[in-house]
Structures are given as C-alpha cells and as structure tokens.
Specification:
By secondary structure, the chain is an alpha+beta fold. 42% of the residues lie in helices and 14% in strands. A four-stranded mixed β-sheet has the order 2-1-3-4, with helices on both faces. The relative contact order is 0.18. Residues 9-21 have low confidence and may be disordered.
Amino acid sequence: MASRRFLPLVALLVSGFALGQASLRCQVQPKTLAAMRNCYRPLLVFSPSATDERLKKQGEILDADADDMMDRFVLFVPVMPSTKAYSTPFDTPYVLLSPQQMQAIRARFHVPVESFLVLLLGEDGGEALRSTRPVDSARLNALIDTMPSRKIEMQRPHAN
C-alpha cells in the first residue's frame, strides 16, 4: 500500500519531466519548503489536529480534482501538531513533513497551533492565498492560472 501513496507524486514528476516543467533536482518527497521552491506550489493547510473536519474537507476537495492539482504542481502539505491519527489523501500529491519542519513553518507564517488556515504559496515561495476555511479547487485553479509561471507552462506544446 505504501507504493500507492507515492503514485500521484511519481505521475506528477513524470508528466513534469516530459513537458520540461520540473527539473531533475526536484525531490519526489521534499522534506522542507526550501526543497519545494521552483518545483511545486505548496498548499499549506494548518490544522489544530489531524482529525479536524476542515482538514479532512480540504483533503476531499483536493482528491476530487487531483488531476488539476497535479497539472498545476500543487503539493498538499498538512501542518498539524501530530500526524498520528492523520488519514493521507488518496490521489492528491502530498508530503508529511517532520514535526520540526511543521513547527518552523508555523513560526514563519505566524500561525498559532489552535488555528485552521489554508495558505497557497507560488513556486517562488511567495504567499498567493490565505483563507481561514477550506478552499475549493475552482478558486485554486483560477488563482494559479493567473500566475506568471503557470502562464508560461500553459504556452508550452502539450502543456497540462
């Protein structure tokens, strides 16, 4: 079952390599935000717990449109105090970071442990969206499609 967890990321990277959108230096399972830079558009979802209904809802939204997320190099990054009771998404590319990385991300973006927050970062690491509620995929797609890097991606032959 572990290999099934990595299939969305493998598909994401294979499609990216074929289209010249990702580079060989991009890690399949990046361990830091710095490793995601210029490779992915991290969707940080801060949650007070691994079983928070808003976190589950955001995962379901992303899973329903996993192909769109892969096309746009969105990497789902849940940020929570503990991952023990967390149910990973089925199809959405995601990464679980170390507790130390999650703490550092909370500190960097000034998000208290008891807060729920969705934060989309561009490939450049800049903040593109901040929401205190789960964000639907249409809103994510529309926002990402206005980004300069995405416009370049869409102009390529056979682009996603």
